[in-house]
Amino acid sequence: MKKYTFYPLIFAFIFLSNISNGQVTKAEVEAMILESNESQLVNHSSRMLQENHYYFSSLVTDKLLELNPESANYNYRKGFILLGLSCDFENAMKHLLKAKDNISKNFDMYSVKETGAPADVLYHLGRCYHLNEQYDEAKKYFNDFVSISNKESELIKEAQLRIVQCDVAINLTKAPKDVKITNIEDVNTENGEYSTYLSVDGKALYFTARKPWENNETESLRDLLLYNYPEDIYMVIIDENGHWGAPKRLDHCKPEINEASVSVSHDEREIFLYEDTTGFGDIYTTKYKDREYKPSSAIQIDGVNTEEGWETHLTVSADGNTVYFVSDREGGYGKRDIYTCEKVNGKWGKPVNMGPMINSEYDEESPFMGLDNNTLYFSCNGPKSMGEFDIFSVSKDENGMWMEPVNLGYPINSPGQDLFYTSNYDARYAFITSIRKGGKGDKDVYMIDNKTSNADGLAFLNGKIINTNGNDIPEGSYISLKCIDCDDNSEEVIMPRVRDGAFVSLLEKCKEYEITYYYEEGSKDPYTETFNTDCDIAFEEVNKTVLLVEEDKIIIPIFTYDLAGIVSDRSSNETITGATVEIFNKAGDTVELWSTDENGGFNSNLADGLVLNDKLDYNVKVKSIGYITQEFELNNVLGKDSIITVSYLIEKDTVETDLAKVLNLKPIYFDFDKSNIRDDAKVELDKVIAALNDNPNIKVECGAHTDCRGPKGYNRGLSERRAKSTAKYIKKKISNPERVTFKGYGESQPATDCSCKKCSTEQHQLNRRTEFIIID
Questions:
Q1: Residue pLDDT, tens place only, 56-80
Q2: Domains, the chain, ranges and CATH?
Q3: What DSSP element (H or E) covers 270?
Q4: What's the whole-model pTM score?
Q5: Which of 467, 473, 427 is nearest to 450 (CA)?
Q6: Could you give the 3-state DSSP secondary structure of residue 416?
């Protein structure tokens, strides 16, 4: 008997020690569950919870609930785990409600005889109601918890803070901001997406996600606390129409290391990231060179990273001369504080705590400096929050002193965690990470549409260098921007984004600028132009676009495109005056309608505003009295020629004209010895139908012809059946169907005059045809 009970105790000790040392697998936990009795399971679950192994503890607790589904103890554990594991407050609430009516004052988590729940169940139930936006109910449970809990409980202070936050939430929800919040379903998954950073022009979103790698490469690397995959950085492109591309993991990511996006330089050639390589968590950077992001290394700003501190986030000002970062180093005002470093004469100064106006006894997180270099956004979980972390903004006064932070309000903020605010240049659109009601995962990315620009008084340069070959921009290309009449006559070197040549910069209002484009360092003939910013207070966007010609290694001004067309008689090439030209988009809507001039020409506006490599994609219908109305495709990719000329040749509707040739029909094929209309033939016959509907006065004869192989009588009969079938198909779909007749000619009218035995395969094929001849 002693021998029987001794080994399970030894196994349990070794097993729990292995968990503490990170040496256990999910399969081993599942095996342990099968081999353990209820008392041992309680012991395992308790030890795991105390060491924050939420995922494995959840597996054990599920088994305990199978054994006793009504146990307040086990239901409390499950609710607590769901909150810690994925902040699943809706399902956590169901378990906590089962546990709340059996509170044990002397709760013993290691005892299998314990059927009650600790008083903490009231705090966690209050948290569930808080996250579910039921603030009065949440306050009730927080107050109940405070009243009955052990006065030494660390959660009492948290509960009192949350009561205050519930009141903040009630007040903020009474005056919601006029914004639109959207869950980005193209990005979010059940794994959680967070730590967002938007490129300045709003075309690329960087974020962090814990997703499995291909071929299960990261399966063995899942952490033992939450059983998450390692963090990686992803980027997704947003096109001109607001459509999201497929998220792509950045190439520099390593499967075994947690790498989280922090911020990105304006030219997107440097990414700042969080890594835990040292075990404490520091700020690293990876730089883009030779068409790839290089392996990351610790940021080269003295004092940002510390040996024993936790540095979680960093942002860089628009001018690149100030960084704002988060650290829990000693000497702060609370837990995590925001610090700043300034660059003077090319050298970085020492980190400085931003002081009590911004930092508090609570946590401050995820700073983001707006393009104006004057508005700092950050998150805080203090008493001015709706709950957990809220996003605040703070600006400098006219003396350069920071004013009091302002809560961005509801629905930007929620009772859950709201972090990582990031916006485009005019702050019309912003993105945040949030844990809130209705989310897809435990952390989701949301877009904020502020509906108007929040950048009055600012001017912004939004430029683009277009490679005429469609390739990336050479990494050595750059822009020099000089303010001619600024006080310091400042000059800025701007590196364009490599993948598309985009570049941005903050401008001063009511100033003159000189901008020079260099293909590479030492370019002999750079392109230079000047421009002025407006003197009013409205937000101003200055757009500049130039062309880069790789063959000549130069950058030149972009030209405007002109689209001109001409309509002519196909037979004589004489231009046609008064022809109607109607242009449709692919949805069938008329976008332009022209009448040709005395030279048969017309000028279109469709190319206005288009740039190199843009595409014209339209259908054009041309009609004129005495001519067959015809439809053409306008399908041009804009190249280096600024004048785009299209020519349309139309055919007179004279007797004996073959519509098949006018419409460039493909051969109308029939199955062997059959006369039914095939699907591929319908495509061509539909073109004839369209032409007949566009030309309601034209009469045609459907004439079917065969080659000379086979008996003449048989061929004539087969061609008659095919001609009849063709005419029948067309008549069903046109007006005045009586204008369509049919006749089978057999082999009597060959298209090529050759002796039957000597006809080639190609000649036989030409003779097998269907004609649509215009008749009286």
A1: 999 999 999 999 999 999 999 999 9
A2: 2-173 (1.25.40.10), 180-449 (2.120.10.30), 459-541 (2.60.40.1120), 562-650 (2.60.40.1120), 659-775 (3.30.1330.60)
A3: strand 270-275
A4: 0.75
A5: 427
A6: coil
